[in-house]
Specification:
2 domains; 17% strand; alpha+beta; three-stranded mixed β-sheet; 5 strands; Dna Ligase, domain 1
Length: 149
């Protein structure tokens, strides 16, 4: 289902590409559409595996993910010693992540109290934040039950 966020995402990417004198190619559109349709936490390899049947190479996926991150459509998170993961940021409420170091599971969390503390601290120090992310690394409940490796 196409949403207003889809239209905004296409417009933001097109503007970003126009500023750099680049074209909105079929592979770039396919990568953006894939990410909009699959809102999970995906690695470069996940995206490439899903689209290589369309003739989209790994280098194209890499460059497009970087472009989507530059124009703030895509958010990168650490991959717990593995490859970075990405998720679409447009049209989503801000959240942070708990990342399991054993299995790589990523849990999304909302911390309103922490958000208020950040804003208060920035205001008090005269700091204007553009963006932030919090990633907490540890072991998920399932991996903790397995015991030490």
């Amino acid at each position: 289902m196409k949403t207003a966020a889809h239209g905004r995402a296409h417009a933001l990417l097109r503007a970003h590409l126009d500023m750099r004198g680049l074209r909105m190619t079929r592979p770039r559109v396919s990568i953006l559409e894939h990410l909009l349709a699959n809102r999970g936490h995906q690695s470069l390899d996940d995206v490439h595996r899903a689209l290589r049947g369309q003739g989209i190479g790994r280098a194209t996926v890499f460059r497009t993910l970087r472009m989507l991150e530059e124009c703030r459509l895509l958010v990168r998170m650490s991959g717990a010693g593995k490859a970075s993961r990405f998720e679409m940021g447009l049209g989503r409420e801000h959240h942070d992540h708990l990342i399991c170091l054993d299995c790589g599971k990523i849990l999304e969390v909302h911390w309103p109290g922490l958000e208020r503390l950040q804003k208060t601290t920035c205001r008090r120090l005269g700091f204007e934040a553009d963006w932030h992310r919090h990633e907490v690394f540890g072991r998920c409940a399932r991996c903790r039950k397995k015991g030490p490796l």
